[in-house]
Amino acid sequence: MSIHLGDLLLRAITAYPDKKAVRCDDGIFTYQEFGQRVLRLAHFFREQGLPAKGQVAILHYNCHVFLEAYYASALIGAPLVPLNYRLSPSELEFIIKDSESAFLIAHSDFYPKIEALSHSLIPKEHCLWTAPTPQALSRGINYEHALASSPSEPFEWGPGDEATAQIYYTSGTTGKPKGVMLSHKNCWVHALGTIAELQMTDADVWIHAAPLFHLADAWATWAVTWVGGTHVLVKEFEPKTVLETMVREKVTLTNMIPTMLNMLINHPDFSHYAFPRLRYILSGGAPIAPEVVRKIMEGFGCDYVQTYGMTETSPYLTLSLLKDHLKQLPPEQQFFYKAKTGRPFMAVSLKVVRPDGQEVAPDDREVGEIIVKGDTVTPGYWKRPEETAKAFKDGWLYTGDLAVLDREGYVNIVDRKKDMIVTGGENVYSTEVENVLYQIPQILEAAVFGIPDEKWGEAVHAAVVLKPGQEISAEEIIAFCKEHLARYKAPKSITFLHQLPRTGSGKIYKKGLRDPFWEGLEKKVH
């Protein structure tokens, strides 16, 4: 059987031509209308010499244009390279060069960043601008004019199956970002798995509140379309706008990073909103406490799913969906399981292994590394054969995440290998300490990492963000941790911040927090 992402859109157009496909600030499009726009964009690219000339990069807010780019690039066989608009011009230039992107779709708000790039990087005639200003049009083409001047007839698609559909650049927390290649098959199988796991149908409405340049939300591009659901897009995350949109559009599903959920449930008007059609909120990228799960489920009136994944796996690896017999447990025990990293996603094979490759005991205590393989796992890193070889062993991708496994088959991550703290010869897992910190009512966010200590090698340190209007001292935080943890695991010091630094994917950037403490030292840990 041949696999092509174009088939997902074709099914929706055929089965639901007049159904609302996309809703955003720029308007509403049925599947028939959306499909016509995708074909016009694809024809424009073909007329310009793609895919032979290279990839297509996109620098844009969430809107229909992003979805059109995903499908049009897939149809012609030119991988899409989503760009994080928070990056600096020099960072963008590296990715555009490294990915060999030949065309760019961009919102005119980002003209200053593009103007700062080398003019030879992407020729003027290869820049498509939305909401174009005269300044932007001096270096490119009006996106809507390009579509209007192109035909919308069907054509023979480019390759599918193992052909690369997208190249996502990782956050680059340990150096220059790497391009993760995802094939048609990777995305197709992942979409099928999420449809089954979440029981998605044409009645579903997905709000894209997280940025589409990141895979944590972009995977829904394929699954929602396949079932004929509706995509609702907000330009950028703003709590009140998101809450109002969720109510107005009768949203049923979404994925948000923990910071976003924190901002929503702590919004002063949150209790005024009701979400009767909301089925699931998915979230990941940081640990969550059972008490926070309870607050989310009670506040939104829906189910909560903790997720774990990585760009290299399309992205999901685990979901904290409950097995049927666990749904009979008292609510507090259900919250406990829902706060775990989750059980393996149905589209992957997953193990937790010791250094010798043997699987750990399912006792919820023995720590090992998560390794995975399957049809959703990347074939490798773009132009990085050595790094690809380093990441895989005997067909298994080694994730670098340390976890335990319980007798129900649920995984719980305890740390990244590089984030584990060794203090006085004892291993301290930052996630365990962070879970205790999140039990303190005044704390909004926390990040735990190791800092240099003459006596112990490393000392446990916590950076915390307090909720608005809340106060608590470092001494009180440390005392609370000592009551709930072994003393060597409790933070020895606390830093109070207004916000935690984050990567482009929304994950807490611990390297940025940790590095200043180690600067200038000859010996560095991790």
Could you give a short description of this structure?
With 526 residues, this protein is an alpha/beta fold. The protein has 18 helices and 27 strands.
Describe the model.
The protein starts with 5 loop residues before the first helix and ends in an 8-residue tail after the last helix. Helix content is 31%, strand content 25%. Strands 2-1-11-10-12-13-14-15-16 form a nine-stranded mixed sheet. A five-stranded parallel sheet has the order 4-3-5-6-7. Helix 1 packs parallel to helix 10 (220-226) and helix 8 (184-198) crosses helix 10 (220-226). The protein is globular and about 70 Å long. The model is unreliable at 522-526 (pLDDT under 50). The protein is α/β, with parallel strands linked by helices and 526 residues long. Among the domains are: 6-236, ANL, N-terminal domain (Rossmann fold, 3-Layer(aba) Sandwich); 421-518, GMP Synthetase, Chain A, domain 3, CATH 3.30.300. It is built from 18 helices and 27 strands.
What is the average per-residue confidence, as pLDDT, rounded to a whole number? 94
Helix content: 25-40%
Shape label? globular
Task: Give the C-alpha Rg.
Answer: 23 Å
How are the strands of the biggest sheet laid out side by side?
2-1-11-10-12-13-14-15-16
Give the name of the CATH superfamily of the domain at 6-236: ANL, N-terminal domain
In the CATH scheme, the class of the domain at 6-236 would be: Alpha Beta
Q: Tell me the span between the first and last alpha carbons.
A: 46 Å
Please give the largest β-sheet. Answer: 9 strands, mixed
Q: Low-confidence parts, pLDDT < 50 over ≥5 residues?
A: 522-526
Give the number of DSSP strands.
27
Number of helical regions? 18
Please give the CATH architecture of the domain at 6-236. 3-Layer(aba) Sandwich
In CATH, the topology of the domain at 6-236 is named Rossmann fold
Strand content: 25-35%
Structural class: alpha/beta
